[in-house]
Amino acid sequence: EDQVTQSPEALRLQEGESSSLNCSYTVSGLRGLFWYRQDPGKGPEFLFTLYSAGEEKEKERLKATLTKKESFLHITAPKPEDSATYLCAVQANAGGTSYGKLTFGQGTILTVHP
Amino acid sequence: DAGVIQSPRHEVTEMGQEVTLRCKPISGHNSLFWYRQTMMRGLELLIYFNNNVPIDDSGMPEDRFSAKMPNASFSTLKIQPSEPRDSAVYFCASSFWGADTQYFGPGTRLTVL
User: Which of A49, A67, A98, A99 is the most exposed place for a label (fewest CB within 10 A)?
Assistant: First the structure.
């Protein structure tokens, strides 16, 4: 069974204080690892997809990296508007009915104080 | 693009009542996913469709839950009868089949009293 564990559960930062969120996963063949951002009262918003170990993707103050066992979401010089819940999900490289399924972690609640 | 549309945004009902949640996927997308989000269990996949056909409903918790997709632009998730433990936020997402990125709607917050 695919599993995703995110840490920490909650992270409080001062504006400008860089940090990283962790996503550890076990999957029977990784097709893709996804990062989503979720604001209160809204649906998850897609950020990145990573496909293979060593891959990195960046968007503004966010950079996602991937190894064979985990992914990191690095936040550089965060601003209060980066406050949100960040969700990690994996998609297995399996055929049949497993195709397209995302397994999500519990998320990390990030709060950035001005 | 309007994105994924869900209705209602909020639903409050009493135990035993029938509840119907609605979803309109992004135009042109041919895969549709229903998720449930709770504090305890996080975001869980309930069922998904490809080209209007249910592919995997193994996440549907009980026979009280059913989902249909009568055409490419509309899907429903029905709970009959509803119970307090069904209280959650229900999300619909859509994508192109074979593409990886799923786009989520704003969700329906269901409260069963």
Answer: A67
b vs e for B1-28, b when ≥16 Cβ sit within 10 Å of the residue's Cβ? eeebebeeeebebeeeeebebebbbbee
Of the candidates B4, B43, B45, the beta carbon closest to that of A101 is on B45
Chain B residues touching residue A42 (CB < 8 angstroms)? 106-107
Average pLDDT over chain A reads 93
State how far the Cα of B44 lies from the Cα of B57, in Å rounded to an integer: 12
Mean pLDDT of B47-68: 92
Pairwise CB contact (< 8 Å): A43 & B55? no
pLDDT in tens, A89-110: 998 876 655 567 889 999 999 9
Per the CB < 8 A criterion, the answer to whether A104 and A35 are in contact is: no
Which of B4, B43, B45, B109 is best to mutate for the A interface (most A CBs within 10 A)? Answer: B43
Residue B16, by phi and psi: left (phi above 0), alpha (psi -120 to 50) or beta?
left
Structure tokens, B79:
């709970």
CB B87, CB B44: distance < 8 Å = no
B42 in reach of chain A (CB within 8 A): yes
